[in-house]
Amino acid sequence: MSAEFARRRLPSLSVLGLVAAAMAAHPAAADTVTIAVDQAKLMRVPERTATIVIGNPLIADVSLQSGGILVVTGKGYGATNFLALDRSGNVLTERQLLVKAPSEHIVSVYYGVERATLTCEPECQPRVMLGDAPNFFNPAAQQSAARNGSAAQGASAASAPAMAR
Fold first, then answer.
1. Confidence of residue 23 (pLDDT cuts 50, 70, 90)
2. Could you read off the pLDDT of 141-165 as tens digits, one per residue?
């Protein structure tokens, strides 16, 4: 009976070995950079970096600045990766990018299956948030675009007299 028990245990041990090997093949949690959608985070890239590759630019976007500073911006929910390559195409670094919803001061209101998102600090105001119902998302997005357009026109009008002097 003990020999039969030992034979049954061997497959379990090999399965554990396979699981351990699979876990070792996946990047560690330290290699994952978590970003909130519509937020940016700074990272450093290795000195010899010549090319940056983003797996899915709809999830995250990057901008390489001088001094090896990389600005990573969360664009959409999900996970993707980023690679830094040298001039020969060798991978210098690879990181997982996880883009999540912002967690502070956000309130989701559901009207049946339709969702509206509000930012509440100190008062609740509409927020343009991926996944909101079009009848909530579109008016908030249009108001935000109109406001940004007005601000840009005001800034150019304010700088025009100063430039003429």
1. very low
2. 888 888 888 877 776 776 665 555 4
Q: Where are the beta strands (DSSP E) in the chain?
A: 32-36, 40-44, 51-54, 60-65, 69-74, 78-85, 91-100, 106-111, 114-120, 124-126
The C-alpha atoms of residue 37 and residue 128 are separated, in whole angstroms, by 11
pLDDT in tens, 112-121: 999 999 888 8
4 domain-assigned: no
Cα(54)–Cα(70) distance, integer angstroms: 12
Residues in the chain: 165
Q: What is the CATH number of the domain that holds 87?
A: 2.60.40.1080
How many structural domains does the chain have? Answer: 2
- Structural tokens at position 75: 């664009």
